[in-house]
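Lab notebook page, bench 4
Experiment: in silico fold of construct C2
Operator: M.H.
Input chain length: 101 residues
Purpose: comparison with the prior construct
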Amino acid sequence: MESTVKADGGELRAEDTGGEGLPMVLVHPGVGDSTIWDPVLPALAARHRVIRYDARGYGRSPAPSTPYSPAADLSAALDHFGLGRARSWWPPVWAAPPRSA
C-alpha cells in the first residue's frame, strides 16, 4: 500500500507491503530511489512486513524546501506506519572507482 508520510516540513512517498513478521525498513542510498529494492522485495516480503520510502528529492518524494534530517524522516516513517521498532537495511557505502593514470 502506498502512502504519503508527513515529515517535519516535507513529505515522503512510502510503500508498506503489510504482512507478518519482523518489520523491516529499506533505506535507499544517496542516489536512485526505493525501486533499487525491487529485486529483493518479494523475498523479503515473504518473511517480513517491509516498508520502503523515497528520501526527499528522490523518486516520488518532492524535493526538500527546508533543511531536514534523514534520521527524523526515518522516525516519521516508523511513526506513520505505527512501528515502535523495525530493522532497517541501509545499502553499503560504495567507494569511488579507482582513477586511471
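Observations: The CA atoms of residues 6 and 12 lie 7 Å apart. The radius of gyration is 14 Å.
Next step: discuss at group meeting.
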